[in-house]
Amino acid sequence: MKEWVKVCLIAFLVVAVTPSLVTASTEIEDPKRVILTYEKDEGLGFLDEIPHTIHHNYERLGAVAVTVNQDDLPLLENEEAVTSIEEDQQVKVSAQQEGWGYTSVGTQKSEHLGLAGEGVKVAVIDTGINTNHPDLKVTGGASFVEGETFVDDNGHGTHVAGIIGALDNDEGTIGIAPKAQLYAVKVLDQDGNGLVSSVLAGIEWAIEKEMDIINLSLTACTPSDLTKQALQDAKDAGIIVVAASGNRDVCTYNDVTDVLYPARYPGIVSVGAVEEDQSDSGYTYGGPSLDFTAPGMNIKSTYITTEDQQSGYETLSGSSMAAPHVTGVLTLYKEMFPEFDKDELLNIAINNSLDLGEDGKDNIYGHGMIQAPTTPFSDFERDRWYSVALELMARNNWISGYRDASFMPQKEITREEVVSIIGRILDLDNEQRETRFSDVPKETFGSGYIDSAVDAGFVNGYPDGTFRPKDLVTRGDIAILIHYAFNIEEDKELESFPDISTEDYYYDSVTTLKDSGIVNGYPDGTFRPMENISRSEVVYMLYKVIELK
């Protein structure tokens, strides 16, 4: 039999779940609760000869949570069918207004995209959720605390749930994903106490119910092989698992140089907390396994109603509060890109995060503070020179991407695409119709904008009666389009670029845009007017025009 494994688990958040199968044999005089793994082919026959009570049977893991007599443990240790034993330790909790966390992760900037987490299933594995709270809608759940429902009688799980999905109802506060389907998975009791076996059962329930995301605001000082395997099963099922990095008042007897468990397991999205000024909270663990930071200090959210707390809202702090901010943001990404797998969604979130501290990933902030989606593009990266411009253009629905949700910033742009973007900015008529050009039929996506641009006087066709919509646009051509579409005033006395002469057809336009600060040259001072221009360059030039206006 494998060596005895002792687990010390201290939880900051845990969820509500339903009662599990309990089979009992009497004569247990000195009870010891443990979790056994066993050879699946052998079954549980090895328990028949000793008094026992089965609390949970994890068929997926090949494990069982059971109470036996202390004196019978040596028999189990010597049983060939038993492969490991873990002590079933206790777990504990730790400690409509847009809160600072809501705005710091940029949720309000996602509103133009219509994102609210609709259709995404989120399991909050905690103390349950207050099902009667007017600011919450609980889709379902289960309790793995024996004899209890998944209704929260502690408050912690309700607080976490509100950060993720408090309703947009002009009452109390608002969650990051107010239309998400929240599931209460209760594994801790009224005092915030529970067992590892309950957490394992909650994870298995989330897998069986095909959750999209699991929030685990709970931490442990030492690893558990069974918890690690259960979470690996969840990841293999395509579930994103988000976990708190842990608070520094835990594991004080250990020299901790990384986040706590389960956040430290590979593939778990680990989250630490920052202050309102985006500085390190100094209160939560960091380390090489840290993925993100998020608002975690003085966070107001939904709560249970108690004799001492009548409002139904409370302010709490810690990595437990940071984790659901990340869960909420990932819920928005899942809604936006439902066909993407968990790794693709995480890559988008990493590229879109707000880098803090040292450049790139570090042990204090991870990849940075997570940010809600502000553009519909899967390849958006916040640290690019054109990022602000792309964000603005997307927020106003002036640009669109490709069928795979990418923007392809370095791809060259066509005449039809440029005219359509300018047409959206100018609010031209985009109704598809027959045009005066033989190569622009009504079915062409930009036919309306092209026809309207001709009427507006800033677009012409070629002498042969064509428009050539798929031709690529040069830097000189885009200068002409912008110059005349937006009526930018000229100054004939200005100096142009050394590679442009007064005889060039684009001279006036390039020079005017240079004077207005809309275009710059290359480091060598040239403009290179005959080079094809990229989508990102066009977006940035139009952004400068909008700033000018």
TrEMBL record:
<keyword id="KW-0964">Secreted</keyword>
<dbReference type="GO" id="GO:0046872">
    <property type="term" value="F:metal ion binding"/>
</dbReference>
<keyword id="KW-0720">Serine protease</keyword>
<keyword id="KW-0106">Calcium</keyword>
<protein>
    <recommendedName>
        <fullName>SLH domain-containing protein</fullName>
    </recommendedName>
</protein>
<dbReference type="GO" id="GO:0004252">
    <property type="term" value="F:serine-type endopeptidase activity"/>
</dbReference>
<dbReference type="InterPro" id="IPR036852">
    <property type="entry name" value="Peptidase_S8/S53_dom_sf"/>
</dbReference>
<dbReference type="InterPro" id="IPR037045">
    <property type="entry name" value="S8pro/Inhibitor_I9_sf"/>
</dbReference>
<dbReference type="InterPro" id="IPR001119">
    <property type="entry name" value="SLH_dom"/>
</dbReference>
<keyword id="KW-0645">Protease</keyword>
<keyword id="KW-0479">Metal-binding</keyword>
<feature type="domain" description="SLH">
    <location>
        <begin position="433"/>
        <end position="492"/>
    </location>
</feature>
<dbReference type="InterPro" id="IPR050131">
    <property type="entry name" value="Peptidase_S8_subtilisin-like"/>
</dbReference>
<dbReference type="InterPro" id="IPR015500">
    <property type="entry name" value="Peptidase_S8_subtilisin-rel"/>
</dbReference>
<comment type="similarity">
    <text>Belongs to the peptidase S8 family.</text>
</comment>
<dbReference type="InterPro" id="IPR023827">
    <property type="entry name" value="Peptidase_S8_Asp-AS"/>
</dbReference>
<feature type="domain" description="SLH">
    <location>
        <begin position="493"/>
        <end position="549"/>
    </location>
</feature>
<keyword id="KW-0378">Hydrolase</keyword>
<dbReference type="Pfam" id="PF00395">
    <property type="entry name" value="SLH"/>
</dbReference>
<keyword id="KW-0732">Signal</keyword>
<dbReference type="Pfam" id="PF00082">
    <property type="entry name" value="Peptidase_S8"/>
</dbReference>
<dbReference type="InterPro" id="IPR034202">
    <property type="entry name" value="Subtilisin_Carlsberg-like"/>
</dbReference>
<dbReference type="InterPro" id="IPR000209">
    <property type="entry name" value="Peptidase_S8/S53_dom"/>
</dbReference>
<dbReference type="InterPro" id="IPR022398">
    <property type="entry name" value="Peptidase_S8_His-AS"/>
</dbReference>
<feature type="active site" description="Charge relay system">
    <location>
        <position position="126"/>
    </location>
</feature>
<feature type="active site" description="Charge relay system">
    <location>
        <position position="320"/>
    </location>
</feature>
<feature type="domain" description="SLH">
    <location>
        <begin position="373"/>
        <end position="432"/>
    </location>
</feature>
<feature type="signal peptide">
    <location>
        <begin position="1"/>
        <end position="24"/>
    </location>
</feature>
<feature type="active site" description="Charge relay system">
    <location>
        <position position="156"/>
    </location>
</feature>
<dbReference type="GO" id="GO:0005576">
    <property type="term" value="C:extracellular region"/>
</dbReference>
<dbReference type="GO" id="GO:0006508">
    <property type="term" value="P:proteolysis"/>
</dbReference>
